[in-house]
Q: What sequence folds into this?
């Protein structure tokens, strides 16, 4: 158990499969898998959707070997059917993986299971008994606990305080000793090492996750649901996590985890359920009988899109140059970030306070026809970098666009100088959901001449441009007068990318351009970026999707704690190498490090 | 189109029904007959004279609504419209009485002073918020008290009419500073209001203001920035719209319009032509209600202002039938509350309907979007 093995991605760069750090048994697993692939497992690929069962009386015990059984779950949201007849059967004491693309309906299914909402149709059976969960606390009473992808911990509390928060022992007085003792027992029993008295703010990501797991165990959960638990972890933490989960299941607990990383699914799960477009399309009782390629095919329903960039198109002229860009850690006074958050009715926390500068002396160059990727665990200065380049955060250092120094210019002036901007969170920063598509096409370009004349909005120009964007960038919409919230995530993103492209930028800052979009939209957006690259656009690509980074980028820079710590060649780098740079586990062997502009070597 | 009309009018209609039910219950509790009450109220508004009086009353309300709405559009709550307009009215009244100018210039000067004073008073919370993060609700409320006391002092010590030592009021504005009534205009087209009925001359200013508000909001770049800042401040920031600048400009603009709230009564209402203890001081709060009721829409707020004034006029009749006039306040309050609830319900329903319609009409296959949280 615990081996992370083998991602077979069609048309991966260089044509090679890459290997992640694997334990000894990985090779054996590989061999076994090869043998099985020859035997063929295609019988398992056909959808196995259970016929809709007739409603079972609540509380009726049915003979069932499953800790959890979901039958024909249907959950509708306005405009979408997120779950359309999902079946799930999880045996007790196993690690069960649910895999599917973004938007396949995994999270909706899990929310159904832990009581965040009720399904419109279908039955939930816990140990063979039909149950209805009116709320998450009803689910936790049945021993079902959820560990969220985004940690819900109070940073200024200690570990034990966070764990007991909401289910404090003792009546009027908090029985601290009892709480601490119980936490120690739990962490020893399941091998989840944390110091109960440490402040959560001082913990690393892996520790925080252990606290989250302890939190649900403390509440008596015997069935744990983990939503993309490895998304925020570095490779060695992933190994540790699965070791802990293994230990949990050995003690009789049941673990369900959601993932779309096939390697960790194949390496760690005892059984797999594949969900596509809201339906169960595969139930695999023995993961050693499938290959990553077969799983991927079930998930995607067709071939995996390839992020591969073909021939080199990099030219000599530097379109974007950044020299010594730095943001000091303690912002003074009321900054615009806080003001905007205040208007939104939220409380701004500009990230956890860090001892280092959020952005520390970053220098880079992007040439015409080049895509430079920024890799790194989220929160290591990527957001600050793009916002500093866009003039949205005050920073020291120089930003040049086409050799023009724009360091002192406003965001608007920088856009007019030729920078296009795909913000990292489309719904938060990229569009106004309640406004029409054509109004959203104006957004960010309202200060240019395209849509405004003498302070007045030129509606006809905006509408005409919107029609072009919809047409050329395959935005699926009934019209340009609908509100943006009616579009799916992928179509919203195509609208944003199209809007930026239509402004004919010289430099594009693209942050997570395909995050949370469906596979079709992802392919379209990748094509747009590739086409723009060969037309001479200089693109700075920030992404958490390594396939996207490796496949699209001509060069990759790795950011850690506000610095560029490495430059690597995406054609030759392995995920293991990248992972160690991203976590600071390895020092780079010299080529280029923080401080030196990243164009020292001739681009490929 | 039918659907849009339906959603526009469904909510206010529902709210009106709810308000009538609630106030009927209140009348019953008071031991009277709702039928008597509503009959009396109807008789009070069922005349040309009443309609003119209602319009006169609605005009400053409307100005107050527009002043507040422009702040609402970007989630800024200008609770300080009261302080802004009374201070503006006092200073404009004092200045207007102190000089002698040709009529149009005199009127323009008074309006100009009112706008500048209102804007200046609003600039204080604007700058506090933009540079120190001070919540504008708190600062504008507190500035209302400051304004009230400042006015008491100024009126007592500096601007009091020396000819009326026993009354605290400014000197009466000269003829050149007053706006003529609109009666002659209506008489010219053969419409006579009857004796003693005067349609105040500030109505055209309010109409121009409403049109200006609409154009600014929906046609101008500033209005676009304003709406984006209100709907999604983080997206506004990412689009290069400075939240600091928007806060300052919007609050100051709100204050400038608020400065005009008291000018209608001051220069167009024969009852006043001066600032004194009788001068209305809480139209700013009414403006808050109207902006909510009219959903910050230029026409919606006009309708709301007329409804508000109508209820006030109608409830005067309740004293004739020995029913407490406070029923009118219950009617207004329950109307406002149920309207806000009804708007939210209708908004959600129509958003769902729009999403459904869009997914039905979308060409090509539609993949499952992320489920809403």
A:
């Amino acid at each position: 158990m615990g081996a992370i093995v083998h991602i077979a991605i069609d048309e991966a760069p260089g044509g090679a499969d890459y290997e992640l750090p694997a334990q000894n048994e990985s090779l054996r697993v590989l061999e076994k898998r090869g043998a099985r692939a020859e035997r063929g497992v295609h019988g398992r690929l056909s959808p196995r959707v259970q016929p809709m069962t007739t409603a079972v009386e609540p509380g009726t015990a049915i003979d069932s070997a499953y800790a959890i059984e979901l039958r024909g779950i249907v959950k509708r949201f306005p405009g979408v059917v997120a779950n359309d007849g999902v079946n799930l059967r999880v045996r007790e004491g196993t690690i069960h993986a649910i895999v599917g693309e973004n938007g396949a309906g995994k999270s909706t299914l899990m929310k159904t299971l832990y009581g965040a909402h009720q399904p419109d149709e279908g039955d939930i059976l816990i140990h063979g008994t039909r149950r209805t969960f009116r709320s998450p606390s009803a689910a936790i009473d049945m021993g079902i606990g959820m560990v969220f992808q985004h940690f819900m911990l109070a940073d200024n509390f200690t570990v034990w305080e966070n764990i007991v928060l909401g289910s404090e022992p003792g009546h009027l007085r908090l029985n601290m000793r009892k709480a601490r003792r119980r936490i120690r027992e739990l962490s020893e029993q399941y091998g989840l090492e944390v110091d109960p008295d440490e402040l959560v703010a001082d913990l690393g990501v892996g520790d925080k996750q252990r606290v989250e797991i302890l939190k649900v165990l403390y509440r008596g959960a015997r069935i744990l649901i983990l939503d993309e638990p490895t998304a925020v972890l570095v490779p060695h933490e992933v190994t540790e996590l699965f070791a802990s989960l293994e230990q949990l299941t050995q003690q009789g607990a049941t673990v369900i985890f959601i993932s779309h990383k096939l390697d960790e699914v194949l390496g760690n799960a005892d059984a797999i359920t594949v969900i596509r477009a809201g339906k169960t399309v595969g139930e695999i009782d023995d993961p050693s009988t499938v290959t990553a390629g077969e799983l991927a095919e079930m998930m995607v329903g067709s071939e995996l899109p390839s992020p591969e960039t073909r021939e080199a198109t990099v030219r000599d002229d530097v379109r974007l140059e950044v020299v010594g860009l730095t943001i000091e850690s303690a912002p003074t006074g009321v900054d615009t970030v806080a003001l905007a958050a205040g208007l939104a009715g939220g409380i701004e926390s500009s990230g956890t306070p860090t001892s280092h500068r959020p952005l520390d002396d970053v220098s880079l160059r992007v040439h015409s026809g080049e895509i430079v990727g920024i890799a790194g665990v989220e929160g290591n200065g990527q957001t600050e970098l793009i916002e500093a380049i866009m003039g949205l955060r005050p920073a020291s250092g120089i930003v040049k666009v086409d050799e023009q120094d724009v360091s002192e210019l406003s965001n608007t002036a920088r856009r007019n100088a030729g920078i296009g901007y795909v913000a990292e969170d489309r719904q938060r920063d990229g569009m106004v959901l309640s406004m029409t598509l054509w109004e959203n096409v104006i957004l960010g370009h309202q200060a240019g001449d395209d849509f405004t004349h003498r302070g007045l909005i030129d509606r006809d120009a905006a509408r005409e441009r919107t029609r072009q964007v919809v047409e050329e960038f395959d935005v699926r919409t009934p019209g340009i007068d609908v509100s943006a919230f009616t579009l799916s995530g992928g179509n919203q993103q195509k609208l944003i990318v199209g809007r930026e492209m239509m402004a004919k930028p010289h430099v594009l800052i693209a942050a997570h351009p395909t995050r949370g979009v469906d596979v079709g939209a992802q392919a379209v957006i990748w094509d747009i970026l590739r086409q723009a690259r060969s037309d001479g656009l200089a693109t700075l690509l920030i992404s958490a999707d390594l396939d996207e980074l490796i496949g699209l980028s001509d060069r990759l820079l790795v950011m850690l704690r506000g610095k560029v710590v490495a430059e690597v060649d995406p054609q030759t780098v392995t995920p293991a190498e990248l992972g160690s740079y991203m976590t600071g586990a390895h020092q780079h062997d010299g080529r280029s490090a923080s401080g030196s502009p990243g164009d020292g070597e001739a681009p490929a | 189109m039918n659907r849009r009309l339906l959603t526009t009018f469904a909510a206010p209609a529902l709210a009106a029904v709810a308000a009538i039910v609630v106030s009927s219950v209140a009348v019953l509790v008071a031991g009277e007959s709702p039928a008597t009450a509503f009959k009396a109220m109807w008789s009070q508004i069922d005349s040309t004279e009443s309609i003119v009086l209602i319009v006169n009353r609605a005009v400053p309300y409307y100005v107050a609504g527009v002043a507040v709405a422009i702040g609402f559009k970007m989630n800024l709550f200008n609770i300080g419209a009261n302080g802004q307009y009374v201070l503006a009215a006092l200073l404009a009244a004092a200045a207007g009485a102190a000089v002698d100018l040709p009529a149009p210039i005199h009127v323009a000067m008074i309006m100009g002073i009112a706008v500048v004073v209102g804007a200046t008073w609003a600039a204080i919370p604007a700058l506090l918020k933009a540079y120190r993060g001070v919540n504008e609700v708190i600062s504008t409320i507190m500035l209302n008290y400051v304004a009230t006391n400042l006015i008491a002092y100024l009126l007592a010590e500096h601007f009091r009419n020396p000819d009326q030592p026993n009354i605290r009021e400014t000197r009466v504005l000269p003829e050149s500073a007053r706006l003529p009534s609109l009666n002659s205009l209506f008489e010219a087209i053969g419409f006579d209001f009857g004796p003693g009925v005067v349609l105040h001359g500030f109505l055209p200013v309010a109409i121009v203001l409403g049109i200006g508000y609409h154009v600014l909001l929906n046609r101008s770049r500033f209005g676009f920035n304003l709406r984006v800042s209100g709907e999604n401040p983080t997206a506004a920031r990412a689009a290069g719209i400075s939240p600091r600048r928007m806060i300052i400009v919007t609050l100051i603009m709100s204050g400038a319009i608020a400065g005009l709230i008291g000018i209608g009564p001051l220069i167009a209402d024969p009852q006043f032509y001066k600032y004194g203890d009788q001068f209305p001081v809480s139209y700013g709060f009414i403006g808050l209600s109207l902006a909510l009721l009219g959903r910050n829409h230029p026409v919606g707020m006009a309708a709301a202002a007329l409804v508000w004034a109508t209820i006030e006029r109608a409830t005067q009749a309740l004293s004739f039938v020995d029913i407490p006039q406070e029923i009118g306040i219950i009617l207004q309050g329950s109307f406002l509350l149920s309207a806000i609830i009804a708007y939210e319900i209708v908004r959600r329903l129509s958003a769902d309907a729009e999403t459904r319609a869009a997914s039905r009409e979308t060409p090509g296959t539609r993949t499952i979007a992320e489920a809403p949280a």
About this structure: Residues 1-63, 303-307, 347-354, 587-604 of chain A have pLDDT under 50 and may be disordered.
